[in-house]
Design a protein that fits this description.
CATH topology of the largest domain in chain B: Rossmann fold
Keywords (chain B): Cobalt, Metal-binding
CATH architecture of the largest domain in chain B: 3-Layer(aba) Sandwich
Distance between the termini of chain B: 29 Å
Radius of gyration of chain A: 18 Å
Largest sheet of chain B: 5 strands, parallel
CATH class of the largest domain in chain B: Alpha Beta
Number of strands of chain A: 8
Number of strands of chain B: 5
Order of helices and strands of chain A: EHHEHEHEHEHEHEHEHH
Strand order of the largest sheet of chain B: 2-1-3-4-5
Largest sheet of chain A: 8 strands, parallel
Number of domains of chain B: 2
Structural class of chain B: alpha/beta
Structural class of chain A: alpha/beta
Helix content of chain B: 55-70%
Domain B12-binding (chain B): 87-209
GO cellular component, one term (chain B): cytosol
Protein name (chain B): Corrinoid protein MttC1
Oligomer: heterodimer
Number of helices of chain A: 10
Domain B12-binding N-terminal (chain B): 1-87
Helix content of chain A: 40-55%
């Protein structure tokens, strides 16, 4: 189970405010808190205008690295921003993200091929977000051909099957879980990731919907989660589900996380 | 920290993959097999106490016992044939009509860890079978009967009384969710323990170890 802490993201209003005000204490605190909560990666996404994106990324990454040893997920829709941001990192982290849009995947894979960096890949292409499981899996097939071409082992990949809001879906999450299952069947060592909170857009009591999704997605094979690790209910649910799935010998991970206060209020 | 202390910490924290090597290191450093075993038994005592006070959970107790058994495997060839370190044989089973074995297995594990040679009769054990086991096995010093259901409490009574009638000198210890000290006294058992964690201490007390 891999936890990618999502809180240092300019798309979140309080973080955006801190970035605008150059409030390094606020950012540092988010880094430390997420590290303490058990994040395996700390996602850093500036979400600012293009002309200041790189300098903002550097400023954020420096603060996070001063505060904690947790590796960084360099997060930008712009693949070149990710590539440049990698240079600010003092250890390999997570490249977030590539997709089959344009030449993104070639540009990124060239850079990360012979490194220890892992990589998030979204299953969309020049045709947008595929509507059916089959179409998404076709994109996945093309993506894995690229991995092979650049000699990137599947275990370094975190496939994001694209989690969309539940409230407009006709079949709940059946389509996305079908995609997850098939991905894991084809490549057991690959990671499947996703932004858990996408599921609950436009619904009340989002936290509950997010947890229900996490449990079912995990049961389908999702093992990497982009979320707020300070949400103890969600973290508890993930550890409990992992144990239920028989992936936690003697429930030691669950008990350990409980002892560390990861999911105890 | 001495090698024996290392072993103790590894047992208490259930590091089953590392215990064997640590036991070997202790032997290589000149520690006696018996002393290492005693140290591990003491560690399991600590684990049992922590479980009884609610400080640790069942899996942590299981994993500690697993770690200890890895350590014991290293000592076995050295201590083979030397029965002086055994507290004696204990016969254990869940009484007639009761199919629960999780609690029983935990107790077996704890008693084994504290130095008893355990004979497990399994679940749904008729009273006579306890008596037969006492007669068939060598050096039996204790019989342990568990009953997890209120409906099998009469069977617990029958088991204790049958054993006592056949072997008046034999010590009998009882336990299980619905069982209390009062009930144990009432049916003529020699001892009672509220949980697996405290069962080992009580068993040793009963045989005067």
């Amino acid at each position: 189970m891999i936890i990618i802490g999502e809180k240092i993201n300019g798309a979140i209003p309080s973080t955006a405010k801190a970035i605008a005000a150059k409030d390094s204490e606020f950012i540092k605190n988010l880094a430390i808190k997420q590290a303490e909560a058990g994040a395996d990666y700390i996602d850093v996404c500036a979400s600012v205008d293009d002309d200041i994106e790189l300098e903002t990324m550097k400023w954020l990454i420096d603060i996070v690295q001063d505060a904690t040893d947790v590796p960084i997920a360099v997060d930008s829709p712009n693949v070149y921003t990710c590539i440049e941001s990698m240079k600010y990192c003092n250890k390999p982290g997570l490249f977030n993200s590539v997709s089959l849009e344009g030449d993104k995947v070639d540009v990124a894979f060239k850079v990360i091929a012979d490194t220890k960096w892992e990589c998030v890949a979204l299953l969309n292409s020049d045709k947008g977000i595929p509507k059916t499981a089959k179409d998404r899996l076709d994109v996945f097939t093309d993506l894995m051909a690229k991995c092979k071409e650049y000699n990137i082992d599947p275990s370094r990949m975190h496939i994001d099957p694209l989690i969309e809001m539940l409230c407009t879906s006709e079949d709940g999450i059946a389509m996305v879980t079908e995609v997850i299952r098939e991905i894991k069947k084809q490549y057991p060592s690959i990671h499947v990731t996703g932004a858990v909170s996408n599921i609950s857009f436009n619904l009340p009591a989002r936290r509950i919907a997010n947890q229900a999704f996490a449990v079912l997605a995990m049961s389908a094979g999702m093992d990497s989660f982009i979320l707020d690790p300070l949400n103890k209910d969600m973290m508890g649910m993930l550890f409990a589900t992992e144990a239920m799935m028989g992936e936690d010998e003697y429930c030691m991970e669950y008990i350990g996380a409980f002892r560390e206060g990861v999911f105890v209020k | 920290m001495s090698k024996i202390e290392d072993v103790k910490v590894l047992v208490e924290t259930g590091k089953s993959k590392k215990v064997a090597a640590a036991v070997q290191e202790a032997l290589d450093a000149g520690d006696k097999a018996q002393d290492i075993l005693d140290a591990m038994i003491a560690s399991m005592g600590v684990v049992g106490d922590k479980f009884s006070t609610g400080e640790i959970f069942v899996p942590e107790m299981l994993i500690a016992a697993k770690a200890m058994s890895k350590g014991v495997d290293v000592l076995k060839p050295i201590m083979a044939g030397d029965t002086s370190n055994s507290l004696g044989t204990c016969i254990m089973g869940t009484v007639a009509g009761d199919l629960h074995d999780i609690g029983k297995n935990l107790v077996i594990m704890m008693l084994e860890s504290s130095g008893f040679d355990m004979v497990d009769l399994g679940v749904d054990v008729p009273a006579e079978k306890f008596v037969e086991a006492v007669k068939e096995n060598d050096n039996v010093v204790l019989v342990a009967c568990s009953g997890l259901l209120t409906t099998t409490m009469p069977a617990l009574k029958e088991a204790v009384q049958t054993i006592k009638a056949a072997c008046p000198e034999m010590k009998v210890i009882v336990g299980g969710a619905p069982v209390t000290q009062e009930y144990a006294d009432e049916i003529g058992a020699d001892g009672y323990a509220p949980d697996a964690g405290s069962s080992a201490a009580k068993a040793k007390e009963l045989i005067g170890a």
